[in-house]
Design a protein that fits this description.
Number of helices: 6
Number of domains: 1
Helix content: 10-25%
Distance between the termini: 11 Å
Number of strands: 14
Radius of gyration: 18 Å
Shape: globular
Order of helices and strands: HHEEEEEEEHEEEHEEHEHE
Low-confidence stretches: 244-251
Structural class: alpha+beta
Largest sheet: 9 strands, mixed
Length: 274
């Protein structure tokens, strides 16, 4: 895994501190506001350091991708379920001597609460999708291709919990760890999930530091199915999948109550690491 040199790590922590401050004032108004501020904070961040550098790019589309799946193949007639795919896609790439060395991805479903209590309402159908990952297809934008991606990393699908009164930093918790805590997927349409002390939630700082050091997230270099899925998501936001290049952006839709953001972190090391 990549090891950020001390100078780069210190500067990145400072950038994360600025990101957190952008979430405090004014107070977040909802999930879309969180997506917008996250995308804005990592729009074009550049951190040079000796022998290593970090840069970011980000984009938001004004519609949320939706997926369709069948919850049980045994039910007749088969009834499909359609849910939002998620709110944010984080990508991390590390180039060592100009060669792609580490490639990670995480999809995040943002949840927001207005109250002081650290409790969030979770949609059961979406929770099932983010924990079980059944065979599915993207129906918005329209696609006929069905996918069965078989995630291997427990942190591939995560929830990002935010609340201007409940927590100042976003809290990230993988959907799989939530499933282990809940023991099973509830059968109701939605359920309440409350952060309790001692669970071991990741603050935004530790989560993003781990991510940008290649310690969490799905390894796209070894999971070609998820790599193809992520490439499709890049196409949705009109990015060239790989490698990063010049962007062409045509965002004609304008749904204020929807959104999907992609944030890409790229670290370049100019010499071999030992």
């Amino acid at each position: 895994m990549v090891k950020l040199n001390p100078q780069l790590k210190t500067q990145f922590k400072a950038a994360l501190s600025n990101y957190h401050r952008s979430l405090w004032k004014p107070a977040l108004s909802g999930e879309i506001d969180f997506i917008d501020r996250t995308v804005a904070s990592f729009q074009n961040l550049k951190i040079p350091a000796r022998g290593q550098s970090l840069k970011t790019r980000s984009k938001r589309i004004h519609s949320t991708p939706q997926v369709r799946f069948y919850r049980s193949p045994l039910l007749l007639p088969r009834k499909h379920t359609t849910v939002e795919m998620g709110d944010l896609l984080f990508i991390y790439k590390h180039f060592l001597n100009k060669v792609l060395d580490t490639y990670r991805a995480i999809i995040v479903q943002a949840k927001y609460t207005k109250g002081k209590k650290k409790s969030w309402k979770i949609d059961t159908d979406q929770f099932y999708f983010l924990t079980q990952w059944p065979r599915f297809k993207i129906v918005r934008p329209a696609s006929k291709r069905w996918r069965f991606i078989k995630p291997r990393a427990l942190t591939w699908a995560s929830y990002g919990f935010v609340g201007s009164r409940a927590t100042r930093y976003p809290l990230y918790y993988s959907s799989t760890r939530m499933l282990r805590y809940k023991k099973s997927v509830p059968s109701t349409k939605s359920f309440s999930f409350t952060v309790k002390s001692g669970i071991g939630w990741d603050s935004s700082t530790s989560f993003l530091l781990k991510f940008v050091q290649g310690l969490v997230g799905e390894n796209l270099s070894s999971n070609t199915r998820i790599k193809a899925f992520v490439d499709d998501l890049y196409t949705i936001v009109k990015w060239q999948p790989d490698p990063p290049g010049e962007l062409e952006w045509n965002d004609d839709e304008n749904e204020e109550n929807e959104g999907f953001g992609v944030v890409e972190f790229t670290v370049v090391s100019e010499q071999s690491e030992r």
